[in-house]
Amino acid sequence: MNLQEFFAMGGYAFYVWTAYGICFVVLLANIILPIIQRKRLLRHLALKQKRHNL
């Protein structure tokens, strides 16, 4: 088996690489979205606390 045959996946390359791509995007979203939400929440809480202390 050479590298070209490996990437062709026996004719199923489109489905296999699409599945890998979707999986990668979902995993990346599971890492990035909570970080963004945490930053947004901390910013909101700091603003709320600042308004409360005035």
TrEMBL record:
The keyword Transmembrane applies. Its main location: membrane. It is a single-pass membrane protein. The chain crosses the membrane at residues 12-33. This is Heme exporter protein D. Belongs to the CcmD/CycX/HelD family. GO terms for biological process: cytochrome c biosynthetic process; cytochrome complex assembly; heme transport. GO terms for cellular component: plasma membrane. It is found in: Cell inner membrane. Required for the export of heme to the periplasm for the biogenesis of c-type cytochromes. Pfam families: CcmD (PF04995). The gene is ccmD. Keywords: Cell inner membrane, Cell membrane, Cytochrome c-type biogenesis, Membrane, Transmembrane, Transmembrane helix, Transport.
